[in-house]
């Protein structure tokens, strides 16, 4: 027994001696494809880490759910099957309402407001992840969600009675509060659903609009900036803590750079994809004062409902954001 202990200690000492030159390899599953701006930003992050650590830490990005599917990524990182990963934050709303603060409709309706909301909620988000052995590294928003229809919408009343696409509890509630009829439709089925009148309105980003070629089946886009849902990147805390101090610093610095770069890329994506909509004949409008007011009222109601669910923590986030 004593021999084996001595042997382990000797091996450990040897390990420390060579760890400076040893290479650490991390796997990073992400849900979106290589052409997605989130994925491109993450590939750049991995390159930044590699060069800052002189190749000491190498992160391999596995895009498009190729290593783990979207619903499995968080648990894979938690269990150490992968060391680092990315998900859409609001997917975890069934675990805790804090994760869906970025998806309350009409609470934060610009990049500036979305950043303020993120700043107001970041500590709580990080704490929730920390409880599960995960460390938040950075978070980047998708383009804001707008309203797609087959006619001009100048007030919330114009949405009454329309069949509106819903894809989660929040979009279903939004449709209800607007007096619309929530209808579940997946993205691939949208063209047929609009063509047959099964759905008449939807709230989604300019990216999804352009990628779905919405001009084939609808005519109007109101740039309502309903909400800016965020992806988040987190690392297995034990894997991070095992890094040398200079490597930890390199990861945190690359993460801060990636966050700034990602927000800028999102703004650019919004402008480019909105232009694609215009170029293909979609009537793109800013919401009228009346529509904005009506949507803000829905937002206030949904914020209150969310705060009820999220308790004191949720109320604290909303207060910090509103001040």
Query: Sheet with the most strands?
Result: 4 strands, mixed
The CATH topology of the largest domain, please?
D-Maltodextrin-Binding Protein, domain 2
Overall 3D geometry?
A: globular
CATH class of the largest domain: Alpha Beta
Strand content: 15-25%
Unreliable residue stretches: none
Q: Mean pLDDT, as a whole number?
A: 93
Helices and strands, in order, run as: HEHEHEHEEEHEHEHEEHHEH
Quickly give the structural class.
Answer: alpha/beta
Query: What is the CATH architecture descriptor of the largest domain?
Result: 3-Layer(aba) Sandwich
Instruction: Give the strand order, joined by hyphens, for the main sheet.
Output: 8-5-9-11
Number of helices: 10
The figure for the number of domains is: 2
In CATH terms, the superfamily of the largest domain is: Bacterial extracellular solute-binding protein, family 7
Q: Which bin fits the share of residues in helices?
A: 40-55%
| Rg measurement, Å | 22 Å
Pfam families: DctP
Protein name: TRAP-type C4-dicarboxylate transport system, substrate-binding protein
GO biological process, one term: transmembrane transport
Signal peptide: 1-22
